[in-house]
Amino acid sequence: MFFLDVPTGSGFTGGEPSRASVIEATHRAGRPLETRQKILSDISRAWSDITGQAEHDLMVSITEVDARSAMEGGFVLPVPGQEAHCQERPLRHDLRS
Question: What's the burial of 67, exposed, middle or buried (CB within 10 Å: 0-12/13-18/19+)?
Answer without folding.
Answer: buried
